[in-house]
Write a structure and sequence with these properties.
heterodimer, A: 174 residues, alpha/beta, Rossmann fold, six-stranded mixed beta sheet, 9 helices, B: 128 residues, 45% helix, extended
Chain lengths: 174, 128
């Protein structure tokens, strides 16, 4: 199982690790940290986008960020990422960056090029989840049509499941 | 994300430092009124506040991982963080502003990395 972490989930994780003993954790910080822990305990591989990885690298001198970098692998855009981002955006009306993140979950790969896409995208962004779910049948049709024209392994590209940390915890703990 | 829970637990949907930022803007009369409305503020000693066992276990899990990175130091409030702000300044911003700066930094990173294209093996494992 592979799970891509949304950039804001990473922010909540850093805040939670820094403030955890200084003040009460927020609900989102608790959810993200709990989900991160459950993922590790269940053998789920966690990924951060190449852009997030780039941002976190600048803060890698801090132990909290180092832990986060150590726990995640980087997911980078592959050949059809830009094209699928554009189609996702046209279909859902989501912001370009949200569409790019969802497209990365479909057309992203690790530094070895050994995987194509992830199973889930963890996000706390409800409008993004709803914008995606509202257009899921159309997206499935468009991806099927696009992927049919693509070479191996891209023709096997699939849509990710978007879920909140709490939903993922419920799923993974069962 | 603006609601505070009324439960006796310690989970809030707004970080306390954001509330503190608001309170610091109060004048003396407003602060006095706050103490009248929340009288237990007079009696609480910060060093005596307990961390619930479940949260303690969660934090301990990550602290053990953090301790492996001895060449790195834990974040301090005065450390430079993002967008020219320190850690304390950044996390004291309202959620919307934090999200905006965080998004902006990531958008810049996407632009810098736009030309990067990761090659994929033909036998790459799809997410099925």
């Amino acid at each position: 199982m592979r799970c891509l972490l949304d950039k804001n989930a990473l922010r909540y994780a850093i805040a939670g690790l820094h403030y955890g003993r200084l003040r009460p954790l927020t609900l989102l910080e608790t959810s993200v940290l709990s989900c991160w822990r459950v993922a590790e305990e269940r053998g789920v591989t966690l990924y951060a986008s190449l852009a997030a990885y780039h941002v976190l690298q600048r803060l890698a001198g801090y132990a909290e960020v180092r832990v986060l970098l150590d726990s995640t692998q980087v997911l980078s855009p592959t050949r059809y990422h830009t094209r699928w981002t554009r189609r996702l955006q046209e279909t859902t009306g989501l912001a370009r960056e949200d569409a790019a993140m969802i497209a990365l979950a479909t057309f992203g790969s690790d530094p070895q090029g050994c995987i194509l896409g992830v199973h889930t995208l963890m996000t706390c962004d409800q409008p993004m989840i709803h914008g995606y779910l509202d257009r899921l049948p159309q997206l499935q049709r468009r991806l099927r049509a696009m992927a049919a024209q693509l070479p191996t392994p891209f023709h096997q590209a699939t849509l990710p499941r978007l879920a909140t940390p709490d939903e993922l915890i419920s799923e993974w703990v069962i | 994300m603006t609601r505070l829970t009324n439960e006796p637990t310690t989970e809030l949907s707004v970080p306390v430092e954001q509330i503190a930022r608001l309170i610091r803007r109060f004048d003396r009369r407003q602060k006095a009124l706050l103490i009248q409305l929340v009288p237990e503020l007079r009696t609480i000693r910060p060093e005596a506040t307990d961390i619930p066992a479940e949260r303690d276990a969660l934090l301990t899990y990550f602290e053990r991982k953090r301790d492996h990175w001895q060449e790195c130091r834990p974040l301090q409030g005065s450390d430079p963080f993002l967008a020219g702000l320190t850690v304390a300044e950044f996390f004291a911003l309202p959620e919307e502003e934090q999200a905006r700066l965080w998004d902006q930094t990531h958008a810049e990173a996407w632009r810098e990395l736009a030309s990067r294209e990761q090659p994929v093996r033909t036998d790459a494992l799809p997410a099925r």
